[in-house]
Amino acid sequence: MRTLCSSTLIGEFFVIAFAGLVAMKDDTLAMSTVWWVCGIGMVFSVLLCGMVTRPGGVQLGWALQLGLIASGFFVPVMFFLGAAFAALWWASVHYGRQVDAVKARWAAQNAQGPAEPDAA
């Protein structure tokens, strides 16, 4: 799960940075505010890469997804990109857990050793 979720979060890091560049062109937003908000979001996405397997990590990831969608009020394309990354986040968590379960089963089977051949 960690690999899939971290990949999604690193992608979000870049999307947040590019959204900040777009938001800078809005005359109603202060450049310092834009970069403080984007900087916090970017740092948060990188820190979440290490926290995703810890308790509450996935929930914090969902909070980031909601923040991305809400940023669409300032940069309208972020409604679409936020929803796309929320779908990627769901897929990363869902399929990542399935992969982890398969890996655990495989490790448990290999820990028991190879099966004995039938004596004829």
How many helices? The count is 4
Q: Beta fraction of the residues?
A: under 5%
Summing up helix and strand content along with how strands pair, one would put the structural category as: mainly alpha
Whole-angstrom Rg: 20 Å
Let me know the number of strands: 0
Largest sheet: none
Task: Give the uncertain stretches in residue-range form.
Answer: none
Which descriptor suits the 3D outline?
elongated
Straight-line N-to-C gap = 44 Å
Helical percentage:
over 70%
Could you tell me the mean pLDDT?
92
- In sequence order, what are the helices and strands, one letter per element? HHHH
Give your account of this protein's structure.
The chain is mostly helical and 120 residues long. Helix content is 78%, strand content 0%. The chain is built from four helices and no strands. The protein has helices at 2-24, 31-51, 57-70, 77-111. The longest helix is centred in the last third of the chain and has 35 residues, at 77-111. It is elongated.
How does the SSE layout of this entry go?
Blueprint: H1 2-24, H2 31-51, H3 57-70, H4 77-111
Task: Write a brief caption for the model.
It contains 4 helices and no strands. By secondary structure, it is mostly helical. It is elongated and about 80 Å long.
